[in-house]
């Protein structure tokens, strides 16, 4: 009898699946979801729109109208093409697969988004992490040393970075892009609605960058849609490894509909940016807590003891993310997603229980 152990790759056998904790009954502030749903009347209209979708047909593999609409509404430069992914996670996986030549490498700052490394490993690419500075700004000099040494296929720069929230300095980014002449630099703007800064207008200005985004953090994590903009020469190649019908008809129809109502999502993002400022000053005022500047819909906070903080908040029914074991630079750090003002108030009340009295 065949056993999985005889067939599955040893590195896969040794792994555990991506952990998603059970959040039943909890205030879920661990995964950078937008706490707001759609207004009831808009949801009603969306439902009517979705009722007309032909579920019996395969989705369009390269939906021209939706791609054009994204280009228009997201200010994608005319010289760029766009590629959709089932979440930007799938785009990362497609890039890894397409670049997986023997000996190919990926360089990215660490701590950073875990899927860069995971995807690289799955595709047999070597991952080289370059530590950020202790204040989580980019160590451009060290990154450039690593790029020179390893000549990676891909360099990831999350703008802003997860889990630190750091918006890297543009001049540092320019130096890295200039140094990475033999690489593709992927600028990951998953948190763009909260950053308000973007490289998208410059996506066609360099022949070695693509700009990647997702609708997940701005309120549509459930539909799984990411997109990537870049010069046609890149998009053409990555499109070849795209699973044939990767964006389902309901996701396409939902995106098509909601791109006509971006004002609703933009207002939610503006509200969350204001909540972020309020939460940052409240948490920073608590003894023993350091809040790092964040351009995302989350805050990275150093607490006296991350494990105690996680458990104390859980006791108050608040689920956060303990990132303290992800990287030595994150010692005793937790990541708090920005919720509604009520949720945030609940979280602050729970954090106050941690303060020495
Ligand atoms: C959440 C996140 C993503 C993945 O987004 P999906 O579109 O939901 O797959 C990509 N990059 C960064 C930095 C993220 O934080």
| Termini separation | 62 Å
Ligand set: pyridoxal-5'-phosphate
Helix content: 40-55%
Main beta sheet: strand number and arrangement? 7 strands, mixed
Form type: globular
Strands side by side in the biggest sheet:
2-8-7-6-5-3-4
**Separate helix tally:** 15
Q: Report strand %.
A: 15-25%
Number of strands: 13
Mean pLDDT: 96
Query: What gyration radius follows from the Cα positions, in whole Å?
Result: 21 Å
| Uncertain parts | none
Question: Structural class per helix/strand content?
Answer: alpha/beta
Any overview of this molecule?
Pathway: Amino-acid biosynthesis; L-histidine biosynthesis; L-histidine from 5-phospho-alpha-D-ribose 1-diphosphate: step 7/9. Its cofactor is pyridoxal 5'-phosphate. It is an enzyme of class 2 (transferase). Keywords: Amino-acid biosynthesis, Aminotransferase, Histidine biosynthesis, Pyridoxal phosphate, Transferase. It comes from Candidatus Paraburkholderia kirkii UZHbot1. There is one protein chain. The chain has 357 residues and is of the alpha/beta class. It has two domains: 4-40 and 263-352, Aspartate Aminotransferase, domain 1; 54-260, Type I PLP-dependent aspartate aminotransferase-like (Major domain) (Aspartate Aminotransferase, domain 2), CATH 3.40.640. Helices cover 40% and strands 16% of the residues. It has 15 helices and 13 strands. It has helices at 4-7, 10-13, 40-51, 64-73, 88-98, 114-122, 140-150, 170-179, 192-195, 216-220, 232-240, 249-258, 262-284, 306-315, 341-352; strands at 27-28, 81-85, 105-110, 126-131, 154-158, 184-188, 209-214, 226-230, 290-291, 298-302, 318-319, 321-322, 333-337. The strands form three sheets. Strands 2-8-7-6-5-3-4 form a seven-stranded mixed β-sheet, with helices on both faces. Helix 5 crosses helix 11 (232-240). The chain starts with a helix and ends in a 5-residue tail after the last helix. 41% of the residues are buried. The mean pLDDT is 96. The structure holds pyridoxal-5'-phosphate.
């Amino acid at each position: 009898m065949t056993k999985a152990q005889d067939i599955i790759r040893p590195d896969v056998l040794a792994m555990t699946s991506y952990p998603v904790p059970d959040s039943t009954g909890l205030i879920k502030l661990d995964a950078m979801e937008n706490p707001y749903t759609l207004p009831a009347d808009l949801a009603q209209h969306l439902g009517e729109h979705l009722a007309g979708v032909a579920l019996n047909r395969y989705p369009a593999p390269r939906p021209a109208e939706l791609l054009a609409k994204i280009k228009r509404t997201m200010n994608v430069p005319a010289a760029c093409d766009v590629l959709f992914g089932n979440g930007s996670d799938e785009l990362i996986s497609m890039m890894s697969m397409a670049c997986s030549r023997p000996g190919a490498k990926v360089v990215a700052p660490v701590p950073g988004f875990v899927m860069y490394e995971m995807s690289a490993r799955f595709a047999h690419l070597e991952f080289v992490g370059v530590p950020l500075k202790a204040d989580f700004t980019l160590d451009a000099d060290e990154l450039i040393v690593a790029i020179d040494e390893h000549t990676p296929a891909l360099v990831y720069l999350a703008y802003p970075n997860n889990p630190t929230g750091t918006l890297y300095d543009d001049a540092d980014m320019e130096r890295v892009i200039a140094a990475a002449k033999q690489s593709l630099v992927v600028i990951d703007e998953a948190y763009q609605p909260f950053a308000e800064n973007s490289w998208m207008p410059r996506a066609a200005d360099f022949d070695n960058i693509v700009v990647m985004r997702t609708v997940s953090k701005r309120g549509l994590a459930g539909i799984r849609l990411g997109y990537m903009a870049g010069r046609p020469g890149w998009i053409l190649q990555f499109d070849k490894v795209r699973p044939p019908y990767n964006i389902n008809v309901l996701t396409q129809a939902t995106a098509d509909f909601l791109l006509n109502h971006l004002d609703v999502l933009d207002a939610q993002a503006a509200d969350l940016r204001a909540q972020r400022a309020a939460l940052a000053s409240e948490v920073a005022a608590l003894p023993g807590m350091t809040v790092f500047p964040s351009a995302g819909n989350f805050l990275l906070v150093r607490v006296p003891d991350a494990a105690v903080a996680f458990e104390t908040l859980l006791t108050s029914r608040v689920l956060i993310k303990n990132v303290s074991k992800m990287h030595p630079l994150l010692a005793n750090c937790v990541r708090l997603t920005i919720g509604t003002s009520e949720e945030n108030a609940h979280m602050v009340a729970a954090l106050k229980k941690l303060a020495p009295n």
